[in-house]
Write a structure and sequence with these properties.
Strand content: under 5%
Protein name: Propionate transporter
Number of helices: 21
CATH class: Mainly Alpha
Number of strands: 0
CATH superfamily: Sodium/glucose cotransporter
CATH architecture: Up-down Bundle
Radius of gyration: 21 Å
Helix content: over 70%
Keywords: Cell membrane, Ion transport, Membrane, Sodium, Sodium transport, Symport, Transmembrane, Transmembrane helix, Transport
Transmembrane segments: 6-27, 39-59, 71-96, 123-147, 153-175, 187-207, 219-242, 263-284, 296-322, 360-378, 384-403, 410-430, 436-458
Pfam families: SSF
Structural class: mainly alpha
Family: Belongs to the sodium:solute symporter (SSF) (TC 2.A.21) family.
């Protein structure tokens, strides 16, 4: 089937965009201070919290990279396996959530500082900013794919428009407005995907026709990937989710532990629907449009279906991208404000000043993210890189704070440095040997260094002291 633009679909994106901007402006008037901006005044109930967790996690990484690219490039089974890290991560976060709330910190760097000292806060802030800017960057490009598909404008021009929307919605009202738009977007996603799956299978001629039109390897367990390569695609999302500051901030913004638990159960159930749906749609797209960019697999199906269904799916795809982008952009900006600016540049900054600086940093980091995406060939490549920098650099040290009382500053700091350096050396210096993602090397290195560093510098009966 030939892929042709359908400008009619742009109306669905326009209506969604106007609605999101309107809600953002309205909610921005309720922002009373920095805690309102960053943690929504710790007022989120289970319904809104579930929506914002869902929408924040399922972004362009899923609909342009992740499940979509895996289904198109390697097959249905490898793509379905991409759901497993998310489900495992949500279950573990369910256990950790009360401990996150107890810390009462705006950032993950603040949690690390309480255990490992000030140096860990500085290192963590840099890691978070670098990783999150990467995540924001491919949300922008994902929106560029959407506008290219619907109007024929270049991906670059569409990326600029996506960048403007993401920056504006993050800046205008912080989590107070982002959480509301996220909730709407989350439920739009679920509805759009449920409608699309049976429709696209019918349009493609049925399941047997889809299977007949894809390479034989696409029906195998790993799609031609080796076991170690498959693990390299699965681990990054798990280790990002387990230590994701965005998720921590949302769990900390709930009304209480009961609301957080209900929200996480709802999030788990929604992901069991969303992730396989994305995989099936992208797999059908491989049959219909075998020559397109893998990152456009899901969005390409919108032009093959009835306009109403295609429009709903495209609006859902846009919601994936915009909500994830503005959430990670906001989170990264809080690190600059509270962990760097407030600690070193202006220690006596007023609440009003901190709020103003957060908005300035949102714009600056948004521009940086737009520039960054031009240096990566595909969404999947920048996704794996950003996830691993974060997952290897921070997650082992973060989980140790909650689960290992003996861990000390030397172990935590050494693990953070080792995780990041291993990732950079494997990806940049060695150019990804054997086509294996760096997570396979970086995470084990970070964990081993964490354990060894702690055991070598504390006696068995002692308890770690706060780093100086």
């Amino acid at each position: 089937m030939e892929l042709q633009q359908d400008p009619t679909l742009l109306w669905f994106i326009a209506i969604y965009g106007i609605l999101m901007v309107g809600i953002g402006v309205f909610m921005s008037k309720k922002v009373a201070g920095s805690e309102d901006f960053v943690l929504a005044g710790k007022s989120l109930g289970p319904f809104v919290l579930m929506g914002t967790l869902l929408a924040t996690w399922t972004g362009s990484g899923s609909i342009s990279g992740g499940e979509t690219s895996m289904a198109f490039s390697y097959g249905i089974l490898p793509s379905l396996m991409m759901m497993l890290p998310t489900l495992v991560g949500i279950i573990i976060l369910y256990v950790v959530a009360p401990k996150i709330r107890e810390h009462g910190k705006f950032t993950v760097a603040g949690i690390l500082e309480s255990k490992y000292g000030r140096t860990s806060r500085n290192i963590a802030s840099v890691i978070i900013i670098l990783a999150y800017v990467g995540i924001v960057s491919y949300q922008m490009k994902g929106f560029g794919f959407i506008l290219n598909l619907t109007t024929g404008m270049t991906v670059q021009t569409g990326t600029i428009i996506g960048a403007a929307m993401i920056i504006f919605l993050a800046m205008i009202g912080g989590l107070r407005s982002v959480s509301q738009t996220d909730a709407i977007s989350g439920f739009l996603m679920v509805g759009g995907l449920i409608i699309t799956v049976p429709t696209i299978i019918m349009v493609a001629g049925g399941w047997s026709e889809i299977v007949a039109n894809v390479p034989e390897s696409h029906m195998s367990a790993t799609g031609g990937l080796t076991t170690i390569q498959m693990i390299g695609y699965l681990l990054p999302s798990l280790f990002l989710l387990l230590g994701d500051q965005n998720m921590y901030q949302r769990l900390a913004s709930s009304k209480g532990n009961k609301a957080a638990k209900r929200a996480q159960i709802g999030w788990l159930i929604a992901m069991i629907v969303i992730s396989p749906s994305i995989s099936l749609i992208a797999f059908a797209s491989r049959s219909l449009f075998p020559d397109i960019d893998p990152g456009m697999a899901l969005m390409a199906t919108t032009v093959a279906m009835p306009v109403a269904i295609g429009g709903v799916l495209l609006a859902a795809a846009a919601s994936f991208i915009i909500t994830t982008g503005n959430s990670y952009l906001l989170s990264a900006a809080t690190n600059l404000t509270y962990d760097l600016y407030g600690k070193y540049v202006n220690k006596d900054a007023s609440d009003k000043k901190l709020l103003a600086m957060t908005r300035i940093f949102i714009v600056a980091l948004g521009v940086f993210a737009f520039i960054l995406i031009s240096y990566f060939p595909t969404v999947l490549s920048v996704q794996m890189y950003a996830y691993t920098v974060y997952g290897a650099g921070l997650t082992p040290a973060i989980l140790a704070v909650f689960f290992w009382k003996r861990v000390n500053a030397i172990g935590g700091l050494s693990s953070m440095i080792a995780g990041v350096l291993s990732t950079l050396i494997w990806e940049i210096v060695l150019q990804q040997p054997f086509e294996v993602n760096s997570v396979v090397v970086a995470v084990p290195v970070a964990v081993i260094v964490l354990i060894a560093g702690t055991l070598m510098t504390t006696s068995p009966g002692s308890q770690s002291k706060k780093g100086k």
